[in-house]
Structure formats: C-alpha cells, structure tokens
Design a protein that fits this description.
Strand order of the largest sheet: 1-2
Shape: extended
Number of helices: 5
Helix content: 40-55%
Largest sheet: 2 strands, antiparallel
Order of helices and strands: EEHHHHH
Number of strands: 2
Radius of gyration: 29 Å
Distance between the termini: 78 Å
Strand content: 5-15%
Length: 122
C-alpha cells in the first residue's frame, strides 16, 4: 500500500524547527503552471479565417454553394485554405453579400482573394 503520506488525499504536514516553520507538500504538487505571456499587442494570435466568416454571413455552407454556384468540396477547400482561388467566385460572392455597393464588393473581393482591402497608394 505504501506510505500514508503518498496518498493523494493526505494532508500537508507541518514540520517545525527551532527558527522556521515549514510546510511540506505531500501531494506531489509543486507550483501552479506559469501563465502564457501575452504577445505584447492587442491582436489575436491566429488570424481570422475570412472565408469561414463570409460563409456564415451568407447564411451557411448550403446557401453559399447555391448563391455562388460552386460545389461543396470546392467551398470546403477554400475554407481550409482561407482564400478563394477562383476570380469569378470572388466577384459573385461579393455581389451576393453587398448588392448595390460596388466599393464594399471590391473591398470584400480583394480580402477573399488574399489581398489587402484597399490598394496601396503611391
């Protein structure tokens, strides 16, 4: 059976010396795990998958497949990659989400394609 102090429910025992009172832990635990350091900025650690968010904004995968006119495996491939590799799909999808707003369509289309939202000025 072993020592009665090796059991997980054993209480810590107090050992006194002439000058110091010790607390000896007998449950095998030392200290708590240190906290993970922050990244120093207020940014998420992993970037947001814009394709996944856009699928949800369109109404889910089935609604997106119907609206954009692609197959479910293609949509899953785009979601896994995080970018849309088809130019026609990018433009159609942006038009579905932002009808009548060409500036918003262009911004979304560029982001879905993996480009910055606005072209860099010179």
């Amino acid at each position: 059976m072993g020592c009665h102090l090796c059991r997980p429910y054993a209480r810590p025992r107090y050992v006194s010396r002439a000058d110091v009172l010790f607390l000896i832990r007998t449950d095998g635990m030392t200290e708590a795990m240190p906290r993970r350091p922050t990244n120093g900025r207020n940014h998420p650690r992993t970037p947001v998958n814009l394709v996944y968010r856009t699928i949800q904004a369109t109404g889910g995968p089935t609604a997106t497949v119907r609206a954009v006119g692609v197959s479910m495996p293609t949509l899953k491939r785009w979601r896994a990659a995080g970018v849309v590799s088809d130019a026609r799909g990018v433009l159609v999808w942006a038009a579905v989400l932002h009808p009548g707003a060409p500036a918003a369509q262009l911004r979304l289309a560029r982001r879905l394609a993996g480009l910055p939202a606005a072209p860099r000025g010179r």
